[in-house]
Amino acid sequence: MTKDTRDNDVAFIQALAELLNANKLTELSVTRDYGPDDSLKVRVAKQVNVVQQAPAQMAAPAAVPAAPAPSDAAPVTNDPADHPGAVASPMVGTAYMSPEPGTAAFVKPGDQVKEGQTLMIVEAMKTMNHIPAPRSGTVKRILVDDGQPVEFGTTLMIIE
């Protein structure tokens, strides 16, 4: 490897790190091909510390007994990702609720949606990816804000 190639690789890695920070990403992987049998694989990542606050019901004193759930009811869960109607992000990117700034959102809580209908857009690498409804139903909750960075698997909304 020549010194010029090494210097170019260092500049390339620094540019990736800047891209990571500028787009509020936590990880970026790239392969740079120079020719057959000659490539550079780079993974730039940063550690993100997430602090979750306990829901108000979990912070209640232990002396207060919780009411038992009826046996025929679905189990109660505090994690939206466990909900059967959870719609997860298929990629890392930025979530947008409308097709363009200043226009109406694709959906809002209470809207009826059909399978395949666009729920929102996740922008990744300057590409606008439409997120379709996995099933027909009613939008119960939207769990991300317009312009919010999302990770792969982030629960975007709940459809029942």
Automatic annotation (TrEMBL):
Residue ranges, compositional bias (Low complexity): 62-76
Keyword terms: Biotin, Fatty acid biosynthesis, Fatty acid metabolism, Ligase, Lipid biosynthesis, Lipid metabolism
Positions of region (Disordered): 62-92
GO terms, molecular function: acetyl-CoA carboxylase activity
InterPro entries found in the cross-reference section: AcCoA_biotinCC (IPR001249), Biotin_BS (IPR001882), Biotin_Carboxyl_Carrier/Decarb (IPR050709), Biotin_lipoyl (IPR000089), Single_hybrid_motif (IPR011053)
Lipoyl-binding domain location: 84-160
Pfam family, one: Biotin_lipoyl
PANTHER family reported in the protein's UniProt record: OXALOACETATE DECARBOXYLASE ALPHA CHAIN (PTHR45266:SF3)
Function, as annotated: This protein is a component of the acetyl coenzyme A carboxylase complex; first, biotin carboxylase catalyzes the carboxylation of the carrier protein and then the transcarboxylase transfers the carboxyl group to form malonyl-CoA.
Protein name: Biotin carboxyl carrier protein of acetyl-CoA carboxylase
Record organism: Thioclava arctica
Lineage: Bacteria, Pseudomonadati, Pseudomonadota, Alphaproteobacteria, Rhodobacterales
